[in-house]
Automatic annotation (TrEMBL), chain A:
Protein location: Nucleus
Keyword Ligase: no
GO biological process: tRNA methylation
Enzyme class per UniProt: transferase
Lineage per the UniProt record: Eukaryota, Metazoa, Chordata, Craniata, Vertebrata
InterPro entries: SAM-dependent_MTases_sf (IPR029063), TRM61_C (IPR049470), tRNA_MeTrfase_Gcd14 (IPR014816)
Entry function: Catalytic subunit of tRNA (adenine-N(1)-)-methyltransferase, which catalyzes the formation of N(1)-methyladenine at position 58 (m1A58) in initiator methionyl-tRNA. Catalytic subunit of mRNA N(1)-methyltransferase complex, which mediates methylation of adenosine residues at the N(1) position of a small subset of mRNAs: N(1) methylation takes place in tRNA T-loop-like structures of mRNAs and is only present at low stoichiometries.
Name of the molecule in the record: tRNA (adenine(58)-N(1))-methyltransferase catalytic subunit TRMT61A
Transmembrane segments: none
GO CC entries: nucleus; tRNA (m1A) methyltransferase complex
TrEMBL record, chain B:
Name of the molecule in the record: tRNA (adenine(58)-N(1))-methyltransferase non-catalytic subunit TRM6
Keyword Nucleus applies: yes
Assembly: Heterotetramer.
GO cellular component, one term: tRNA (m1A) methyltransferase complex
One Pfam family in the UniProt entry: Gcd10p
Keyword Nucleus in record: yes
Keywords recorded for this protein, A-Z: Coiled coil, Nucleus, tRNA processing
Species of provenance: Chloebia gouldiae
Coiled coil: 317-345
Sequence ranges of Basic and acidic residues compositional bias: 74-90
Region (Disordered): 62-90, 263-311
Cellular compartments annotated: Nucleus
Length: 402, 482
């Protein structure tokens, strides 16, 4: 993420391709998200000091330590991060991810909205500039002090909207370190785990923190998230993000193997969420993390074989109400469709076909429905050509009283 | 806090009965007959037990906490491999209807009846292991009467309403409700506007997610807000301190600046009561008509009946001290009414003031009304860069709403969506999707507000024409004059 460009001062589009293609082996199950990532190309340029060395991708989403050409140790990446921040020492004023603020402040993470599904996050910093396809945004003058939701005109005369961050917007824009959970699954998980302010939740793995942000949002201000990630660098990255987003007091990140060492807490959780390759190995730990008087558990797995083993383990550990489901999102494009009226050989003067128009009162703009050309227009919600057909099975269960 | 898991069942609580996947909301009262899944019983014995306890219904309708029993594994592990020799002659069960009835009347435990049925089934041994499992499960469901008493939650109540009374909540399926809460970024500290005609279920869901922090303004049609489902949640009293309500019929006057509380009907509270009561009754009638085959008529669909709701609501709406006064003389009543009216007016003023700030953190709409006029007006009260979500049982009104919102401007990231929910049977070697799934749980239109520019109306026509193009293209087109 906040990584200096390897080699060249200005990153080319091709570089991004290269970097992300190295990762495809990791996220092989979902190639689609990898593809989406390629389209993001926002570059953050720091105004002060030497421009050339301060180019970083905001969303080097596919960063993958094992396969990237120059793996960074956690300490190294941390160092880079500090260096990056040093010119403008800022202090977080608002807890932006769990509390709405009206105006954009130094240190906020804001979402730059360019247009249809095209947006990226930006770290607001005095003196920084952000490059968009509509031109440059200067943080000091264009962002800080402005109202969230404002239209900001970029240097080339184009404009963007600056949005307040929410877990949902973050999910759509976060730097991927792993495959992530999207808002459709997150919403049913949150409801079925009965999360609310004050809930104590355990999660593993942390991954890219997509679900974590949503969980923190829901349990704030009195709840807590204990999240376990066995990958050291990912754990460190997550900690860093939580700090930047002003939610660190609501979350504890532990770097250990949940299957071997559990969640590091016992008898305090209202809910447990598992998104790991072998959840059945963690069911025992999940049970001991949950409160003695009970709680809810959820496991996310892409494959039915994983689900089967998990269900068996849940039963073995005395979980009840075991229920597996799958939720799919269907998005519709709103379109004006025109259908041609077939020519059945009727005389052109024949007005009997006006019936088509009167049955279509919804379209005031073109009341005659272009009868001359023989078409009828209507508005419709059209499904996308290709949609996500499977994310994963969600298995829920209740730990009941013994 | 109201104490989540581990809390004990107390008299007067709102609880939910659960048998397999069937739920029913009840208020826990002593010496009160409850009918649930063709059984009747009293909840007296449940009081004092922890939520989540499973009870057995014994003769005389008393509840006994279920002892953890070692499954009496059918000693004979005999099983067939296929059904080539199983003939359906209707004579495989040696026990007659009367025999079974006699067993039941004797008060024999359901578990034993199931055992007897197995022993008297001539084909049981020839059935495959899977078929035996299925047989036992089916019989257990019928004869072993166990119910679990659980604490209400959005998960449970929305599942219950969707299964039992989808008509009352406009067929809003629980996963759709879950989407609304997430898309709306509902969390503690928000100032939310909620417009719903879902019996108060959506309001309750929002209240649960806000945990008593922040404020909610409920917009209501008619004489008063319906909160039958809200009261099933059993929220602690402080949750209602920052719950406001505002009549939908006054929205226009509030927006145009002509609103005044003095212009309200002389006794708004009375109207509200009358209207609600009649509402409740007609709904009651409707559902009992629908459910006659399912359940005996005396059983109210929701155990909490309208008049009772009224009580709980009153308690919530006013101080308990007033309740004591109720039993006193008429003079007192008149005074009390005046106080109530004054309080109501005061609350209305507060709600109006909150709305006038036009800085709400979100808008949730789930009603039987056409969404377009609601959105066009209510979005005025929402701050920029905040999410809004509209539910509709049908897609077409949302298509229109989408179009009108694009014309109006001030919104981005508009999305019309629907979720599909598929349940699975997961058993060793027998995993597959459940045979039936819900046909539909409604549609959502969501988006984010942005600062609405002045003079937007002029360009609205041209924008409407260009609507079909991707917005990035439009940006470029509109860039030129900028």
């Amino acid at each position: 993420m906040w990584r200096p460009a390897p080699g060249s001062p200005v990153l080319q589009r091709e570089d991004l391709h290269l970097a992300s293609s190295t990762c495809e082996t990791v996220g092989s199950f979902y190639t689609k998200s990898t593809f989406i990532l390629l389209s993001k190309q926002s570059v953050l340029i720091h105004e002060s000091a030497d421009l050339s060395s301060r180019v970083a991708f905001l969303d080097m989403s596919c960063e993958c330590p094992e396969t990237s050409p120059e793996p960074l140790s956690p300490s190294q990446s941390f160092q880079h991060h500090d260096q990056w921040q040093s010119p403008a020492k800022y202090k977080l004023v608002t807890m932006s991810f769990v509390e709405y603020g009206d105006t954009i402040k130094d240190g906020d993470t804001a979402i730059v909205f360019l247009g249809h599904e095209s947006m990226f996050p930006v770290k607001v910093q005095h003196g920084s500039m952000t490059q968009t396809k509509y031109g440059v945004i200067r943080h000091s003058t264009d962002l800080i002090g402005k109202k969230y939701g404002s239209k900001v005109t970029c240097s080339k005369g184009g404009w963007v909207f600056i949005l307040h961050p929410t877990p949902e917007l973050w999910t759509m824009n976060l730097p991927h370190r792993t495959q992530i959970l999207y808002s459709t699954d997150i919403s049913i998980i949150t409801m079925m785990l009965e999360l609310k302010p004050g809930s104590i939740v355990c999660e593993s793995g942390t991954g890219s923190g997509s679900l974590s942000h949503a969980l923190i949002r829901t349990v704030a201000p009195t709840g807590h998230l204990y999240t376990v990630e066995f990958h050291q660098q990912r754990a460190e990255k997550a900690r860093e993000e939580f700090r930047e987003h002003g939610v660190e007091h609501l979350v504890t990140v532990t770097n250990q193997d949940v299957c071997k060492n559990g969640f590091g807490v016992s008898n305090i959780a209202d809910a447990v969420f598992l998104d790991i390759p072998s959840p059945w190995e963690a069911i025992g730990h999940a049970k001991s993390a949950l409160k003695a008087e009970g709680g809810r558990i959820c496991s996310f797995s892409p494959c039915i074989e994983q689900v089967q083993r998990t269900c068996l383990a849940m039963e073995e550990y005395g979980f009840t109400e075991i229920n597996t489901l799958e939720i799919l999102l269907r998005v519709y494009n709103v379109r004006t469709v025109s259908l041609q009226i077939p020519d059945l050989g009727k005389a052109a003067e024949d007005n009997s076909s006006t019936g088509f128009d009167s049955s279509n009162p919804s379209h005031q703009e073109s009341p005659c429905g272009n009868l001359q050309q023989g078409t009828v227009q209507f508005k419709s919600g059209v499904p996308l050509r290709e949609v996500v057909g499977h994310t994963g099975y969600l298995t829920f269960a209740t730990k009941s009283l013994v | 806090m109201e104490g989540g898991a581990g809390a004990r069942i107390r008299e007067g609580d709102c609880a939910v009965l659960k048998r397999d996947e069937v739920f029913k909301a009840v208020s826990v009262l002593r010496r009160r007959k409850i009918i649930f899944e063709k059984q009747w019983f009293y909840l007296d014995n449940a009081i004092g037990h922890i939520y989540g306890t499973t009870f057995e219904v014994t003769s005389g309708g008393t509840l006994q906490p279920k002892q953890e029993v070692e499954e009496t594994t059918t000693e004979t592990k005999e099983a067939g491999t296929d059904n080539r020799n199983i003939v359906d002659d209707g004579k495989s069960q040696k026990l007659t209807h009367d025999d079974i009835k006699a067993l039941k009347d004797k008060g024999i435990k359901g578990q034993e009846i199931v055992q007897q049925l197995i022993e008297n089934s001539t084909t049981f041994r020839d059935k495959t292991e899977f078929a035996q499992d299925k047989y036992i499960k089916k019989k257990k469901k019928k004869y072993e009467a166990v119910i679990t008493i659980v604490k209400p939650s959005t998960r449970i109540l929305s599942t219950m309403y969707y299964a039992r009374e989808p008509g009352k909540i406009n067929h809003l399926r629980y996963d759709t409700l879950a989407q609304m809460l997430t898309l709306g970024n509902i969390h503690a500290g928000n100032k939310m506007i909620v417009m719903e005609t879902c019996a108060g279920l959506v309001l309750g869901a929002v209240m649960e997610r806000m945990g008593g922090y922040g404020s909610i303004i409920q917009m209501y049609p008619g004489g008063g807000p319906v909160r039958a489902a809200t009261s099933c949640f059993g929220f602690p009293k402080p949750f209602f301190d920052n719950l406001h309500e505002f009549p939908l019929s006054k929205v226009q006057s509030l927006l145009s600046g002509t609103f005044s509380t003095e212009a309200l009907p002389a006794d708004p509270e009375e109207n509200a009561l009358v209207e609600e009561e009649s509402n409740g009754l007609s709904e009651e009638k409707q559902t009992s008509l629908q459910e006659t085959e399912e359940e005996p008529a005396p059983e109210a669909p929701m155990e909490i009946n309208p008049t009772e709701e009224q009580d709980t609501m009153d308690i919530n709406a006013e101080d308990v001290e007033f309740k004591e006064n109720k039993e006193k003389e008429n003079k007192e009543n008149v005074r009390e009414k005046q106080i109530k009216q004054w309080e109501r007016r005061k609350k209305l003023k507060e709600a109006a003031a909150l709305l006038r700030e036009k800085n709400a953190d979100g808008l949730i709409v789930a009603s039987k009304f056409h969404p377009t006029p609601l959105l066009l007006s209510l979005l005025e009260f929402v701050a920029p860069s905040r999410p809004f979500v509209v539910y509709c049982q049908y897609k077409e009104p949302l298509v229109e709403c989408y179009t009108r919102l694009r014309e109006r401007g001030g919104v981005i990231n508009l999305k019309l969506s629907e979720t599909w929910l598929r349940n699975y049977q997961v058993l060793p070697d027998r995993s597959h999707p459940k045979l039936t799934m819900s046909g539909g749980g409604g549609y959502l239109l969501s988006g984010i507000t942005v600062v609405l520019e002045k003079g937007k109306c002029d360009s609205s026509n041209s924008e409407a024409l260009k609507m079909e193009e991707p917005s990035s293209k439009r940006c470029k087109l509109q860039d030129l004059p900028c």
